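Reminder: ligand-aware prediction takes two inputs, not one.
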Amino acid sequence: MAVVTGSTSGIGKAIALEYARQGAKVVVTGRREGLGEQVVAQIKSEGGQGAYCRTDVSAKEDVLALAQFVGDTYGVLDILVNNAAPAALAREADGRIGDISEDIWDEMWRTGLRGTCLCCKYLMPLLVKSGRGSIIHMSSIQGLRGSGWDAYSMMKGGLISLTRSMAVNGAKHNVRVNCICPGAVIVERTEQLYAADPKMEQLARLQSLTRVGRPQDIAWIAVYLAADEAAYTTGEIFTIDGGVYARGRLRLPEMPAV
Ligand SMILES: NC(=O)c1ccc[n+]([C@@H]2O[C@H](COP(=O)([O-])OP(=O)(O)OC[C@H]3O[C@@H](n4cnc5c(N)ncnc54)[C@H](OP(=O)(O)O)[C@@H]3O)[C@@H](O)[C@H]2O)c1
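Here is what comes back for the chain with NAP:
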């Protein structure tokens, strides 16, 4: 049984769909109800089991309602993917500290960090009850390296520290905590940007594998981290970026943020 936050689109949606294909019951969350219901309809059309629970992860009452829904419906939780983040604001969060508005800082903190902590806090009893809980935080290579996205890097770097600390505490209850750091991934939100901006072609060339990522690339590692085959894996940070981090250069000058 899995909860994937922010699974109405993009990487979260791909993870929710793949978990369902692998046999998990999946709760799809996010604020856009129409899209959430569409993801559940796709899960069911492929023979899987899922439900949508509208959740704004930055709102404590929503997270409490999510925990209540999961507890009442399934009684237990095996997998929590903390994927929700204000990814659409990444462009505004791209820049020097003095140029970023307080509203953007607040949103990075409120959704990306506080929202993740709320989900962990209120869903933890159900993960402990499972006896084999797996928490996966969705960070970014921007949380590992300095590339000038001050606000976004703050949010994603925080998740990396949270992963290691929570892994120590979670181990007492056999709750594993790991983190995924994707590089650039084309999602619905960025498809047009990639298509319209010739500079994005350069981004593909930065990757050792000469292409940007797809949501399904990230879904496969989320499948592994949730599986019993990863039973000895906790506190780890998994970079999946086509080899760009290995190369040491995340962006070119004047490259637009995605
Ligand atoms: N695409 C990339 O290149 C890339 C690279 C590295 C890391 N990431 C990370 O991957 C994750 C997914 O991003 P994406 O690229 O797939 O973008 P996306 O399609 O915009 O997905 C973001 C998801 O987060 C949800 N969300 C945002 N604010 C929320 C809130 N307050 N409460 C609940 N859900 C919320 C959105 O759902 P609603 O709008 O329906 O609420 C949406 O489902 C993010 O953590 C992002 O930072 C992305």
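The two ends are 32 Å apart (CA to CA). Residues 5-12, 30-32, 35, 55-58, 83-88, 111, 115, 138, 140, 182, 184-185, 187-189, 258 surround NAP (CB under 6 Å). We will return to this case in the review session.
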